[in-house]
Amino acid sequence: MSNRILAFNHLSFAYSTKQSVLSDLSLDFFKGTTIAILGPNGAGKTTLLHLALGWLQPTSGHIALEEQPMKSYPRRELGKRIGLVPQSEHIPFEYTVLEYVLLGRSPHLMPLEMPGELDYTIALRSLDQTGLNGFQNRSMLALSGGERQLVLIARSLAQEPDILLLDEPTTHLDLANTRRVLAVIKELQRRGKTVIFTTHSPNAAASVAEYTILMRNGHVLSAGSTVEVIIPELLSATYGVEVEVAQVNGRPWVMVD
Amino acid sequence: MDSALTSRDALQAQNKQIARRRQILILLSILLLFVFGVSLLIGRYPQPGLLSFERLHADEMAQRLVLNLRLPRLITALLLGITLAAAGSVFQMMFGNPLVEPGFLGVSQGAAFGAALVIIFLNSAAWLVQGSAALFAFVGLGLSYTLARKVRYGGWVLRLVLAGIAVSALFSAGLGMLKYIADPLRQLPEITFWLLGGLAGLSWSQLLSILPVVIPGLLCCFAMRWRLNLLSLGDETAFSLGAAPNRERALLLAAAVLPTAAVISVAGMVGWVGLIVPHIARRLFGADTRYALPASMLLGGLFVVVCDDLARTLLAGEIPLGILTSLFGAIAFLFLMMYRGIKVRR
Questions:
Q1: Nearest CB to B343: which of A112, A136, A141?
Q2: Residues of chain B positioned with their CB less than 8 A from the CB of A103
Q3: How far apart are the first and last CA of chain A?
Q4: What CATH number does domain B28-338 carry, 3.20.20.70, 3.30.360.10, 1.10.3720.10, 1.10.3470.10?
Q5: Is the separation of the CB atoms in A155 and A115 below 8 Å?
Q6: Do the Cβ atoms of B7 and A141 come within 8 Å?
Q7: Among A175, B144, B236, B293, which has the minimal tally of Cβ within 10 Å of its Cβ?
Q8: Per-residue DSSP letter, B106
Q9: So what's the ipTM on this one?
Q10: SS3 (DSSP) at A99
Q11: How far is it, in rounded angstroms, from Cα A193 to Cα A158?
């Protein structure tokens, strides 16, 4: 049986007929791996993530989830398998942290079913896993940016998906919160989850990802193991600036001249 | 081990909180039943004030009055309050916007315009008035929503409110035109009734005519209350959490707009209930719609029943219900705004 969990075959996507965002992309993602999608702003990283979620439909090509066409999955089934942590989220009302995390249980509930004790237990455990125990009754609107990001991750953990997609999970975070988020990703990796995250920081990719996909202008420049991809020549071609890569604790560390 | 213990404690604390919320909802239901019962005895017969049980028992006229006039009127008041508050909650959650209600998105004005159109150009058959009210309620909502998406100024909350104001104003202008050409003796009084709102002379047949729309709509909103939490987070997030946002949104919109148009068709324009009551419910029960929606429905029913009691007893003549709900609603809104009860992000 194939270890491939997600496959993009000759995928193209355009928001309008004038300009394509992604063109002829073919990628395979394997179970239990952590993959960073790295590239400058406007490279098409978030679009790629939205295609992997099923939220956007490719203009040509197709996506297979566990060797089955993604379109063949009912909505709720897809929600059980793939979770998304968006870059930011508009929180319109004063939900408590637990109420918010509990929403992650939705795909596991029948359309008119309410969350029960098991769902509460899983939601509380997810808070625990993200270091947010004790936060359950806090208002979402009173949290810092980093804490909010962790709550979004906790909600995705409560969803118990096989694949977790994270859109720029560390972009607006300070060092301490970046470290916390990366530690959660490492923990997910240890538990055998497939994690795909976008980032424009090569160092965030280098610190947790086993595989890295380099993107620029809707094309994949390079894809492979992180140590093979995060090299000066490829990064310079991606970002258009001179880049040096040092080795810190056996991992690449990127510096800009 | 420590972590497991903490989780168990946290779970117990949550169970207690859920039980407390349910108790408050039950108390609120009992209060509503009590107020409803007392309201049946309040009126101006045989003299202003409370009708005694002895009198009710002995006086056949009083019995007929309570059964044929007050009971259908109070049930309609109750349904009106429940429907407007539920629709307000649904709209606020679905648009992720605490500043919307049917009256703000062209729904109420559209319904009133639709009803007036039928009164003038066709006839006043109840089903035609209701059908036209529902149709134009949807047109109003559709226009507001489309306009808000096209406006290139401000955030989503602001755009939706601006679009709603513009569409409501268009329908108000249309209503003005209809009033202008209406027969001043036959049609104008009927249309004017729409603008002030009221339940005077409401009959059992009018009440029965709206039930087939109102009851299924309310049940649908109630049954889907957990989904409203999901939809409030926006389409992308709702989708990622296994929802089908477009389908669920369309179903909930129909479940909120159709009953609203139905109650408006018999009660006229009763404003502010859909805006203020959901706010108060969220203040008391938190944002989670599992509790905020039933609370909103109960409080809406209570608010309109009490306002209707005042409407028919404060003065010798009847005060239009819409005036009282607007007065108290606007005062409550100002109070909440000043004490930071309403948090709006542009």
A1: A141
A2: 229-230, 233, 241
A3: 46
A4: 1.10.3470.10
A5: no
A6: no
A7: A175
A8: T
A9: 0.92
A10: helix
A11: 13
B136, B117 contact by CB (below 8 A): yes
- Would you call B241 and A106 a contact, using CB atoms and an 8 Å cutoff? yes
Q: Where are the domains of chain B?
A: 28-338
Q: How far is A153 from chain B (nearest CA, A)?
A: 13
Q: Worst-scoring range by mean pLDDT, A160-169, B192-201, B243-252, B335-344?
A: B335-344
Report the pLDDT averaged over residues B48-73: 91
Q: Is the pLDDT of residue A203 over 60?
A: yes
In the block, residue with structure tokens 């909120």: B256
- Nearest CB neighbour to B236, from listed A79, A86, A141: A86
B306 half-sphere exposure, CB direction, 13 A CA radius: 15
Residue carrying the six token digits 């946002």: B245
> Residues B199-251: pLDDT tens digits?
988 899 999 989 999 999 999 999 999 999 999 998 899 999 999 988 998 89
The whole model's pTM is what? 0.89
- The answer to whether the Cβ–Cβ distance between B10 and A133 falls below 8 Å is yes
Determine whether the interchain pair B14/A107 forms a contact, defined as Cβ–Cβ distance below 8 Å. Answer: no
Tell me the residue type at B36.
F
pLDDT of A138 reads 95
> How many contacts (CB atoms, under 8 Å) link A and B?
107
